[in-house]
TrEMBL record:
Signal peptide (residue range): none
InterPro entries named in the record: P-loop_NTPase
Molecular function per GO: kinase activity
Superkingdom of the organism of origin: Bacteria
Protein name: Pantothenate kinase
Organism: Rhizobium lusitanum
Pfam hit, one: MeaB
Keyword tRNA processing assigned: no
Keyword Ligase among record annotations: no
Amino acid sequence: MSISLENIAGEIIARAGDTRRFLVAIAGPPGAGKSTLAENVAKALQARGESAEVLPMDGFHMDNAVLIEKGLLKRKGVPESFDVRAFLDIVKAVRAADQEVLVPVFDRSRELAIASARIVSPEHRFIVIEGNYLLFSQGKWAELEGVFDYSIMLAPPIEVLEERLWARWRGYDLDEEAAGAKVYGNDLPNGRLILENRRQADVTIDIVQD
C-alpha cells in the first residue's frame, strides 16, 4: 500500500496520546528509503509542534577492522555485522527518557561510525528509529519485539530496490563491477533476508507519498 507523510505523522500523534516518550520504528531492506522517511517523519512531527529526533541503527556498524578480523568485511550490513548488544542498550536507555543519551551516526562516505554524534534528549517526545533489522525475527534482534510503540515496514518491490541501490553506489563513484558486487553480492541478499524474516509491522508500505 501507499500512504502520505501527513497520514503517518497524524497516526503517530494519535497513537501517542499524552505519552511522554514514544518510539517509532522504520524498518526495511537496503535502499528502501528508511533514512529519508525517518527524517521526513521527524520534520512532519516538528511542524505540528512536537519534539522529535532520529536514531539511526547504522551507527552501530562494527568497525571495518573488526569486520576484517571476523571475515565479514565483504558482507558488511548482514545482521551479525552490527553491535546489536550496544544497540539494544541504547534503545533501552532512550526508552526510559530519564537522561540525555548520546548515539553514534554512520558516515557512509567514509564507511565508519562516529561515536556520540547525536543527542537524544529527555525533552524529545518522539524518537524515530530507523534501520534494517528493527523487525528482524532472528537472533538477538528478536529481543526488540514489543519495544516500539509504532512500527513501519518499508517494502518496495525488488526491482525498485535494485534500481535505488545501483544509484547509491554509483553515487559514490564506484565502477560498474564494484557497484554490482555491492548490489548483488550483499545488499539485495540482505534485503531478501529482511523481507523473508520480519515480524508484523503496524503498517507495511511500498511507496510514501509527498
